[in-house]
Design a protein that fits this description.
The protein is mainly beta and about 900 residues long. The protein has two helices and 72 strands. Strands 1, 53, 54, 55, 56 and 57 form a six-stranded mixed sheet that branches. A five-stranded mixed sheet has the order 29-33-32-31-30, with no helix packed on it. Strands 65-69-62-61-72 form a five-stranded mixed sheet, with no helix packed on it.
Length: about 900
Amino acid sequence: MRRTRILTAVLALAAGLLAGGPPALAAGAPEPATALAADTYTWKNARVDGGGFVPGLVFNRSEKNLAYARTDIGGAYRWQESTKTWTPLLDSVGWDDWGHTGVVSLASDSADPDRVYAAVGTYTNDWDPGNGAVLRSTDRGASWKKADLPFKLGGNMPGRGMGERLAVDPHDNDVLYLGAPSGHGLWRSTDAGATWSQVKALPNPGNYRQDPSDTSGYASDNQGITWVTFDESTGSGGTATKTVYVGVADKENAVYRSTDAGATWQRIAGQPTGYLAHKGVLDAENGYLYLAYSDTGGPYDGGKGRLYRYATATGVWTDISPVAEADTYYGFSGLTVDRQNPGTVMATAYSSWWPDTQIFRSRDSGGSWTQAWSYTSYPNRENRYTMDVSSSPWLTWGANPSPPEQTPKLGWMTEALEIDPFDPDRMMYGTGATIYGTENLTRWDSGSKFTITPMVRGLEETAVNDLASPPSGAPLLSALGDIGGFRHTDLTKVPSMMFTQPNFTSTTSLDFAESNPDTVVRAGNLDSGPHIAFSTDNGANWFAGTDPSGVSGGGTVAAAADGSRFVWSPQGAGVHHATGFGTSWSASAGIPSGAVVESDRVDPKTFYGFKSGKFYVSTDGGATFTASPATGLPSGDSVRFKALPGARGDVWLAGGSSDGPYGLWHSTDAGATFTKLANVGEADTVGFGKAAPGASYQTLFTSAEIGGVRGIFRSTDKGATWTRVNDDAHQWGWTGAAITGDPRVYGRVYVATNGRGIVYGDTSDTGGGTDPGPGPDPGPSGDCEVTYRITNEWPDGFQAEVRLTNTGSAPWNGWTLNWSFTDGQKVTQLWNASHTQTGPAVTVRNTDWNGTVGPGSSAAFGFTGSRTGANAQPAAFALGDRACAVR
């Protein structure tokens, strides 16, 4: 994940959370008692697969195939070997404890594999209002008990890739140690994590701060005790292990040891200085403690590093670094020992951003090394591996870099690296965007290439800033932190690519034209380049707009109902409006800079804004805004509002804070007046979906507190009554960024999370939970024309677009297009249609939303494919049994 990760998380939380957590109900008249109905929902993720930093991987040492992953803001996961997927374990974390979705460390008990522990807490400064905790489970994370700590933990703080800070004594599994940040030292539990006390005998709580001058407390926090490692050769069953090593964030005193089960501690003599020890991994069989050092705490930074081996019996330190110190421009971190062949050690150059990360491997305890790639003649390189990202094709970032860079990259921020203790051929490692792995690692040693693939399915770690579900086209468009966003044509499949041209680091807002959903706009952040982009094909392809002067970030953006104009409130500049696709912007009058903007979904000249308790309305396409006389609205900027499709001037507004009005408001006169719903105590998002069977008004969805219960709620009667649609097992921490229903599927709701990706739910109610089925098998009559265009090509694959045009005089009600490849190409993923392929023959059928094609109109779809040689265009296309002209 990119350097903007922390900014993404903070910006996502800025709406009311940074001031002390989710705002409480304002003082005043009590909320009326509300009888809540309940519905049974099925919850899934719209698949992205990964999308965030995985700083830790933990394999159990006594049970095969038992492994866990931790994320910085998205909870913890357990590996499911039968399906090769990850199962989320912390979805039960609720709104008030949102910080506990950040996991700073994990420990799996090898003496009792049913036990697992998680040290949780997202920030050690005031961004996270709550203290940290240690969660303990006796059923592998299916359920948890919590031990609150008297200090905060930092799952998303600098140094979070070091570790593991939490460890279980292998001989007395009631004993655990936890390394704490912020000068709180080392802590110990002797009752299996139920209670904790400080180990005061450890003399050094650490002193390293990434940036002591940072007044926010984020980069200036003491990174503390960074890892704990037991020497299992110094104990026996039922008796606490005698020798314990800990890493300390102190460049002059980085490693301490106790030889009396933690009663006393000493700095190990002769240790290297000038570095922080990111990892300490012990090979008890050979008596070696391996240490990976960097000059900083990571995970983004690090300019120099070393690898050392400490002989536990003799006290001899040996520099086993694979390259000279002068040749490093990175630190070392990811560190692992092959437990089946303990002389085999691996480590990563975690902070080598360019041209790629590096992985090192030694089979003689660090005496000599080989590396995952090397230069032949610069800038050309030779890899010991091949990469197959067909399951997550967006990992190429749509890039075409010049050597020595390659796409996809081997990784970055590679602080987690583990060889399966039961299988020397399996290795997994975490990156800033995914988990990669291999199941034929030992090919490295024979000189043949091993294969790296994403091993991340089920782990969804995106921070979601905005969501949209158009009435036609793709069912879901998303604005995401760090990886921009996606167009989902199938929620069960990973999209082929994130939004590109331009590729925002984070998309902050998106919108579509309600009566012309092919017109889509998005705004976002980019280090250099435009901050706004447009699409005329429902988000399949994009082109950049032009920024007005002063823009520094995406802000919010709104499309007119017919797509004829746009209003944009970017960061760093005031609100602007444009006719057409943003080639020339004009400042809007009457509305303050930083206002949130939205459009009326019927009247193309009506736009709305909100800032600091005031609602603003424009009826001239965003040229001028007038403040509404409405009063009693939230005084802060923690507000989200939307206009109802199909009804001019119907606006719903959610938001507030603990020190003022907080709830859900409704206007039917374009914001001139608002009525607060008395039965909603708090509300942070609002969205609309298909009306319930027999209902005339669209379904409302909100992330709110209603009837004293925090959750995701649905109303089918304009908010008169509410149904909670999630349950205590499905809460996902903070869900205050965005929510929307689906205009085509009754009951379906898409929920934005801050680290658990895009969650969507389907109802068990009658009439809900099913996608529209495919249309009838088409047999259109009339003439047709096909345009086939290759849009991207690489050595073993390509991307193409196909446009099918009705050149006849009668409409088509469904279509099937057939062709045959001539060079052995194979479709690997296709969007905006469905397909089958038998040998070279391909058949593509319409989806439910693009089957009707009028005379002179077109249907378009795209796909990625594999190839082994040439990539000639198919010579002929047929619509059913009718030949089409090829353009």
